Input
Amino acid sequence: MTRFLPFSIATALTTLALALPAQAQNVESSAGNLAATVVVEGLDHPWALGFLPDGRMLVTERSGQLRLIADGAVGEPIAGVPDVYNQGQGGLLDLAVAPDFENSGRIYLTYAERAEDAGLQRGQGTAVLSARLVLEGDRGRLEDQQTIFRMNNFTNSNRHFGSRVVIGDDGNLFVTLGERGDQHRAQDMTDLAGAIVRIAPDGSVPADNPQPEGWAPELWSKGHRNPQGATLREDGVLFTVEHGARGGDEVNMPRAGGNYGWPVITYGVDYSGLPIGEGTEKEGLEQPLHYWDPSISPSGLDFYEGELLPAWQGDLLAGGLSGQVLVRLDVEGDTIVGEERLFEGQLGRVRDVRVGPDGAIYLLTDADNGRLIRVAPEGR
Output
């Protein structure tokens, strides 16, 4: 969710929208006729999108590039990005722009890190970088880079890194971590895999983390498989989406100290068709707010809080990779009461979803020729 809405960026995005070429796809929705228009293309498996106060945007590419997008053009890679483990599902992943960016220039990146780059013996794992972004014209560089967090058990798997980073209203960071393809790690409370962690901006542990007995201090919640979407509601409450196995993709509202059950409970089955765990519920384990069966492989998540689509105020928007879809979830309080699927099979694998300060919905598609797409009412 966009946590700051300066006039300059909304104006710039609206101006950009008016200048875009007329290559749009339309779909009827509960909010009227929507048009999906390509802003830029040629991105290398883009993973995350962020908005800057001056109207420009940042995009991560999984292969390791951070790029600036301005006036419908993709800039040269920003210098100073760390080397990443770019194999399987690893690479340069999420980004978050600090709310005080205009003063601090601070951004956060999540990425898959090699053991040798972390001073460890073997494998790879998820890490978080804090850095100051310096922009000069259409070029940029990172300064004051510091790896503020890395998971505590690197392994040789190239799967299930997560990973989204969300800045809480108190300035602390929520970071989602997959269980790295080893499902039992999600129930090891000393292991940071299969979890949501909460850390301070310098990587230290906030004093008010839940810290149940036997839990690693960084942990916020456990029992997650591979969370690839996270956002805050207007009241500061965290929501996530995560991949199941064969079925069982979930929407969760992770509470402090909660155990979300993977792999003990799940609404999916193994890829072989065999059952996983002990069923769909068990005392002491949390239920999802919503699940998908069959899977859509959800990635990217944001609450709609714009003016272009007033009927969708407070609803959740999620992308689908295998589902190749944009999903709107009708939210009432802490309950999901309905689902609407949009552009199904039309745009490709939707990796990230962000609501722009102009009220439009921005999507990234996961492909060799990945695209940034703007979704808005036709003519807007």
